[in-house]
């Protein structure tokens, strides 16, 4: 459930330019809309390898919440435009995905409770958006979106207690495995009838697309402990369900807090997943952050703990996010701590993840999900919302090596409090050069 924290909001995008061999330049901060009581909350940002991209957000128009988009081309953001067309239907939970040439897919939900899932599709910079239903029944509780470089899109979504998927090709969406979004043949749960990808930020599905397919991940329970499950989609063909959680992690039995999945995928279909994994220390469940790879052939790599916690931790970590560079050779994982609220980052090198190192400083008093993005040069960014008492700001670190404090402030004084929902405060994207954008 979304939580709006302020009445006056400015939509702000920050750009960090990556120049080979030169320290990162100071971020360029662009206010795209507001401050205004009509600007509700950012939906997300996505940047294609060629530097084109888009961002989306929810803004009231005529007293009704609608979906707005700004597009990136030639290094500049366009004036925002509204892309949903139903004047009386309130929109929510907007997401965006970009692909080279300026291709943009925007999705959102209509209706309170379980909603209709709709999309607006533009195939290139300067091309108009066309509206297409993803799910034309009011059954979607939560969803995720991604689009491959060739423009083929995928959505994973929750219907009832089931996880499902749809594929975009040629401007039209097709349900995977079933004729409709309620066809039993389209249920992708490992165990039909189990509780899969239920909404709320901790168990929802995530999906990452590449030319030829996608990898989706979610958390599922049959009434006992939660497991993290993945499937590969090749076109519309469904691969086997693969459990990523393990019974013994780092020499300790697993705990119950196994959820919060995220996934990124490289151009050859190699996926890196990350999730929170329970680890019992006596009777105490200390959740750790784990990464596991999935090869194009379906081989699952050994779990790697990347949170930087000691072997006998006094707190856990949560809300991990992962990103891979467009060439698949570089990766970043970011996660906040449960009790001390500091943000930690881990970098992928040669197929192995470094232990997490702190990127935040000070004495934070609350935690928020963070965001990360990395380019094919290895230059990347980690961004998060820093809370200290009554003060809150968006901070970031960037570079091509180990990312560490001191951070740079991205948020704008006088624009109001930082808006957030139950899954994210900031989002980020990077092109192949490592030029990064944070919303």
Brief sketch in words of this structure:
The protein is built from no helices and 39 strands. With 439 residues, it is mainly β. Mean pLDDT is 88; it is low at 1-11.
Outline type = globular
**Helicity, as a percent range:** under 10%
Rg computed from alpha carbons, rounded to a whole number of angstroms: 20 Å
**Estimated structural class:** mainly beta
Lateral arrangement of strands in the main beta sheet: 8-9-10-11-12-13-14
Question: What's the helix count?
Answer: 0
Report how far apart the termini are.
20 Å
Beta-strand segment tally: 39
| Whole-number mean pLDDT | 88
Q: What proportion strand?
A: over 45%
The low-confidence runs, each spanning 5 or more residues with pLDDT under 50, are: 1-11
Assembly state (oligomeric) = single chain
Described by strand count, sense and barrel closure, the largest sheet is: 7 strands, antiparallel
Give an overview in words:
This protein has 439 residues and is an all-beta fold. Helices cover 0% and strands 51% of the residues. The chain has no helices and 39 strands. The protein has strands at residues 9-16, 28-36, 39-47, 53-61, 64-73, 76-77, 81-82, 91-99, 103-110, 115-122, 130-147, 153-159, 162-169, 172-175, 195-196, 206-210, 213-221, 226-234, 237-238, 242-243, 248-249, 252-253, 259-265, 271-277, 280-281, 284-285, 288-294, 304-305, 321-324, 331-336, 343-349, 352-353, 357-358, 371-374, 380-388, 391-399, 408-409, 428-430, 436-438. A 7-stranded antiparallel beta sheet has the order 8-9-10-11-12-13-14, with no helix packed on it. A hairpin with a 2-residue loop joins strand 4 (53-61) and strand 5 (64-73). 54% of the residues are buried. Mean pLDDT is 88; it is low at 1-11.
